[in-house]
Amino acid sequence: MNRKTIDFVSTRVLLITPPFTQLNTPYPATAYIKGFLNTLSVSSRQADLGIEVILKLFSKKGLTRVFEIASQKADELSDNSARILRMKASYLQTIGPVIDFFQDKNPTLAYTISEGNFLPEASRFEQLDDLEWAFGTLGVRDKARYLATLYLEDIGDLITEAVDPHFGFSRYAERLGMSASTFDEMEEALNQPLGLIDSILLELLEEKIQAYQPESVAFTVPFPGNLYGALKCSQYLKSHHPQIKVWMGGGFPNTELRSLKEPRVFDYIDFITLDDGEAPISLLLEYLDGKRPLTDLKRTFVRVDGQVKFVNNSAVKDLPQREVGTPDYSDLPLRDYLSVIEVANPMHRLWSDGRWNKLTLAHGCYWGKCTFCDISLDYIGRYEPINASILCDRIEEIMVQTGTNGFHFVDEAAPPALMRDLAIEILRRGLVVVWWTNIRFESSFTADLCRLLRASGCIAVSGGLEVASDRLLALIKKGVTVAQVAQVTNYFTQAGIMVHAYLMYGYPTQTAQETIDSMEMVRQLFEAGVLQSGFWHRFAMTAHSPVGLDPKAFGVKRTALSEGTFANNELDFEDPVGVDHALFSEGLRKSLFNYMHGVGFEIPLKNWFDTKVPPTTIPKKYIQQQIENAPAHSYKDQNRILWIGAQPELMEAEEGFCELIFSGKKEDFAVELPLELGEWVCWLLAKVSYTEALNTLKPIRESYEAEMGDFEELVDSEVWEILKEHGLLVF
User: Fold this and answer.
1) Best CA proximity match to 227, nearest among 374, 20, 57, 52
2) d(CA 49, CA 201)
3) How many CA atoms lie within 13 A of 95 on its CB side?
4) C-alpha dihedral, 326 to 329 to 335 to 337, nearest 10°
5) Which of 31, 386, 433, 559 could covalently link to 327 via disulfide, CB atoms 3.0 to 4.6 Å apart?
6) Alpha carbon of 337 to those of 49, 123, 332: distances in Å?
7) What distance in Å separates the CA atoms of residue 109 and residue 97, rounded to the nearest whole number?
8) What is the pLDDT of residues 195-250, one digit of tens each?
């Protein structure tokens, strides 16, 4: 398809994120698609109905409606909800100021909140015994936001009990969307009388329809907890605005609905697209404009003659990432999101605190081998990076657009070489950026590369340690070892970058011994100070992963072979090893909570569990030894060399000597050198400055040996160590 020759009518599309995803920042899918539609000159608007519903619900008017409903059930309420109901006046008085505080519109309220006598308190505040331990010397504002988060969660508990059992701050009716092999339960829920949250949602939807008069409404459904909201809105549109075409895409259809056979879904939705939306949307717009037949659609489900039909025009290729445009966050209420605090997990705090611009470094995963991952699907399997210059152009454009400089790069695994190039480009442009992303703990992340990433604004990385067992890591085809993870996490930590580990238990053929040994590895990583955050996930077999596609190859077998007509992704299986992995869940969770707070390392592993577990076979100092035994850096001609410090000033001293004066951000320091060596060092630092093209070590070695002597003597010298300490990087 030649995009330059297409003459699009200005089709008006309303892009919607239904309830609920995050309180602190918009989910990026609609911004990505709006940015793409801009390249086609197709007018579009977008709305995050999740945050808008929250703001309506958690207002004086919204809570008044909540308390009215709850009071009708007063005799049925738990003691906790009854207490909240009795404190109705205090909640109605405080809700407006607290929401303003979360939005940074009323920051001075932190002093009042942190004193402890302002907010009404229910059961969520029972965890306050550990407040000082968890926060240490953190400031008043953080303490206040944590207390205010507990306050919101108390209200949320009342809503769940008395108003809507499906309510959740980052999910809505999630259970209905999870493992829903048939559509029956979802349809039954959709046909229930409107509840309070439904009413608020549909009132907001109608406001958008009246304001924008769209010809199409497109819903992104990234998670099971967004499905009900999308379908409820679609149901309303079909009833009240039948002329509007309704589309759906996103992570949930991409994984769960690939084998969709249920025609009833199309009573609500006209089109469901899979994988990258740009090419399917281009063709869909042309079809709606009467310029293409239905058979020309790409990766799109429709209903034809009462049957579900998947139309895939494979002749039309997906667009290169350089052509999809810059995400456009206009229309979204960026100043109205809520920065809440989850104190237990520092990486989870990044997800819930502050507004992050979402951007992707590369489409798909450059590794693409992990056997638990859906690598057969396009969003992972098709790897396509973007160059650093285009990325920085997009970063600058988004910073101007949103007024914020925080970025979460939402890659499956950010490529180390592209991270390096991006970091250098950020430094060259003099940008002030704060960013974090997901990685693989691979050996490419040397100590010096980690220092470069930190200099460019990287504050955190998350990566998969998974099972923390070398046998199972090999079975997973993770491409790393526990020793390698220990070394790489140490490099990131030494550079000042927080490290979060995704942890997994219950992988096929994993024994109880391996689970306990994995736990010991994790304990030692935290004790060594090279991990700051982690989270244990129970393994789930998915239909599109290698282990799901061929379970026999991994020593397990499927137990339920029938395929549903609606959602199909998570699979049941039997493991001949016969371990009841549920017995480990609570012990793994409790121990990790303690390790993240720097305590409990001395507690025997068996004490975290209510059942008998085997003793660990891992040596007590295994992780520390792996860190200490990290291979020494060897300088090779193909290594890159970079200076990220300021250029020094050369001052001649006594005859034949000079001083190089370096001005760091905190203080100056001087190095006295022979004049000839000092001049060469000045040449070197100018030559390999981040402002110049990236150099390899070979010409530097050749220059030194032609003018000064043996290069190996230089790299073994104190001068070289000083330069390395202050910003000379070789990777």
Assistant:
1) 20
2) 7
3) 23
4) -110
5) 31
6) 12, 25, 10
7) 8
8) 999 999 999 999 999 999 999 999 999 999 999 999 999 999 999 999 999 999 99
Residue matched to tokens 């010096």: 448
Query: Is 489:444 a contact under the CB 8 Å cutoff?
Result: no
Distance (Å, whole) CA 179 – CA 548: 15
Annotate 601-635 with DSSP letters as a single string.
TTS-GGGG-SS--PPP-S-TTHHHHHHHTPPPP--
Task: Dump pLDDT digits (tens) for 317-343.
Answer: 999 999 999 999 999 999 999 998 876
pTM of the full predicted structure? 0.91
For residue 632, the cross-strand partners are none
Q: To 5 degrees, how large is the angle CA 450–CA 451–CA 452?
A: 90
End-to-end CA, the chain: 42
At which residue do the structure tokens 């009795």 appear?
86
**Cis peptide preceding 20, ω within 30 of 0:** yes
- The residue with tokens 């924008």 is 212
Confidence of residue 347 (pLDDT cuts 50, 70, 90): confident
Contacts of 351 (CB under 8 A, 6+ apart): 22, 24
Q: Are the beta carbons of 375 and 412 closer than 8 angstroms?
A: no
Rounded Cα–Cα distance for residues 511 and 484 (Å)? 23
Residue 582 confidence (pLDDT)? 92
The pLDDT of residue 10: 43
3-state secondary structure of 180: coil
| Distance, C-alpha 638 to centroid of its chain | 34
pLDDT at 328: 96
- How many Cα atoms occupy the beta-carbon half-sphere of 677 within 13 Å? 16
Going by C-beta distance under 8 Å and a sequence separation of 6 or more, which residues neighbour residue 506?
A: 538, 539, 579, 581
Q: Which helix (H) or strand (E) holds 444?
A: none
Q: Identify the pLDDT of residue 174.
A: 63
CA-based diameter of the chain, in Å? Answer: 94
Q: Of 271, 260, 193, nearest to 230 (Cα)?
A: 271
Residue 270's contacts (CB-CB under 8 Å, 6 or more residues apart) are: 245, 246, 247, 302
C-alpha distance from residue 42 to each of 106, 285, 298, 345 (Å) = 38, 9, 19, 42
What average pLDDT does the structure give for the chain?
A: 92
Amino acid in position 481: T
Question: Contact 688/730 with Cβ under 8 angstroms?
Answer: no
**Over the stretch 104-130, which tens digit does the pLDDT of each residue have?**
999 999 999 998 899 999 999 987 655
- CB-count exposure of residue 131 (10 Å: 0-12, 13-18, 19+): middle
Q: Using alpha carbons, select from 246, 325, 210, 223 the residue that is nearest to residue 19.
A: 223
CA angle 490, 491, 495 (to 5 degrees): 115
Find the helix or strand (DSSP H, E) in which 652 lies. Answer: strand 649-652
The strand pair at 271-273 and 300-304 is best described as antiparallel
